[in-house]
Design brief:
The protein has five helices and 22 strands. It is mainly beta. It has two domains: 33 residues, no CATH class; 282 residues, 3-Layer(bba) Sandwich (YerB-like fold), CATH 3.50.90. Strands 3, 4, 5, 6, 7, 10, 16, 17, 18, 19, 20 and 21 form a twelve-stranded mixed beta sheet that branches. Strands 11, 12, 13, 14, 15 and 22 form a six-stranded antiparallel beta sheet that branches. The protein has a two-stranded parallel ribbon with strand order 1-2.
């Protein structure tokens, strides 16, 4: 009797051949792949292979900005802030170079006349003037910049106060280079002009760095506090004294505030009109410094420490708040009524130091 062989299906064909050759009886078991097998086959699911990222995402590109204006630039030059004392009497007008300043501070001096501290860093004007002497409030204005201050002269104590505040002084009376008397612009002392690049060239190693930021500046004009939360305004009228009454009028065409001296447009010798992106008014105490000028007039001193009321006008709108300054070399801060920071728009800023007892600010 022939043997019975049970052969797995995988070997069926070869086993059948052997069986035929040997005469064995071949019993074939059912195969899973047989057409008669109706059992369902479970699907096989394979998860995709996800490799972890091998590098960090690129850092966002932050465009450089000028520290005192917040304006974006392709390249920001590393140079110190240069403050220059500029006269604003009737005999001094029209001035030169004020339109290239980053920040301009206006202060009351003897006789109610105002004088400017024009701060330059992002632009290098060919000429600035007329340049006059320093006053006792200048250290508090310029010290936070840690740079240079150029002036024609000043009382010995006023000059020493600037040095004590950490500033490098560039004085015509001390023989510094870069000053000259300009013909055809008026009699002395209203004819002293200077070359800013020559002033910068004299910076020593302790005064060569770019200035720290001063005011907090929004990334775009639309995000400035006055634009976001202020009320509409077209005019900022400032009463500094009976002599000095500057007015700023919003001009939507240029997107700036245009300055007038009283009712007369404030023009520069170049033919440009004085304009600002931001106008900041600070209510300040003005006291007697205990000194007199060469003509015997008492020299006032603006006290730029402590705190007081403030307004910020930007983009045809104005907002009220407060200012604070902890000391001579401290940066002045601006705050809204709720304590949040008052931000400015990128651009040029003019700061009006308004006597709290005798001055006023009218916004309409």
């Amino acid at each position: 009797m022939s043997p019975v062989l049970t052969v797995p299906c995988a070997r069926r064909r070869s086993a059948a051949i052997v069986a035929l050759a040997t005469g064995a009886v071949l019993v074939l078991g059912a195969c899973s792949g047989s057409p008669t097998d109706r059992s369902p086959v479970a699907p096989v699911t394979q998860a995709p292979v996800i490799e972890a990222a091998k590098a960090a995402p690129p850092a966002p590109v932050v465009p450089p900005r000028w520290p005192l204006t917040g304006v974006v630039a392709a390249e920001v030059a590393v140079r110190p802030a240069l403050a220059i004392k500029v006269e604003n009497s009737g005999e001094a007008r029209p001035q030169t170079g004020l339109d290239q300043a980053d920040v301009v501070w206006e202060q009351v001096v003897e006789g109610g006349i105002s004088r400017f501290v024009a701060v330059y860093q992002s632009q290098v004007p060919a000429e600035v003037g007329p340049i006059r002497s320093v006053r006792p409030m200048d250290p508090a204005i310029a010290a936070p910049l840690h740079g240079l201050i150029a002036f024609s002269g000043g009382q010995a104590q006023f000059v020493q106060d600037l040095k004590n505040a950490g500033l490098q002084t560039i004085s015509m009376d001390a023989g510094a280079a870069g000053f000259y008397r300009k013909s055809g612009v008026g009699p002395a002392p209203h004819n002293v002009y200077g070359t800013p690049q020559t002033f910068w060239d004299q910076a020593d190693g302790n005064h060569a760095a770019a200035p720290p930021t001063q005011f907090v500046i929004a990334k775009t004009p639309e995000k400035a506090t006055a634009v976001v939360a202020g009320g509409p305004s077209s005019t900022v009228a400032v009463h500094l004294s009976g002599y000095s009454r500057p007015t700023w009028t919003w001009d939507a065409g240029t997107g700036t505030w245009l300055r007038a001296e009283g009712s007369a447009p404030a023009m520069l010798r170049s033919g440009a009109r004085i304009a600002a992106t931001n106008v900041v008014t600070l209510k300040v105490r003005v006291v007697d410094s205990g000194t007199t000028d060469p003509a015997g007039n008492p020299v006032p001193e603006t006290v730029l420490e402590g705190s007081g009321d403030a307004t910020v006008s930007t983009g045809g709108k104005s907002v009220t708040g407060t200012w604070a300054k902890a000391g001579t070399d401290a940066v002045l801060t601006l705050a809204a009524a709720d304590g949040s920071v008052l931000t400015l728009a990128p651009g040029v800023t003019w700061v009006e130091l308004v006597p709290v007892d005798s001055g006023s600010v009218t916004i309409s």
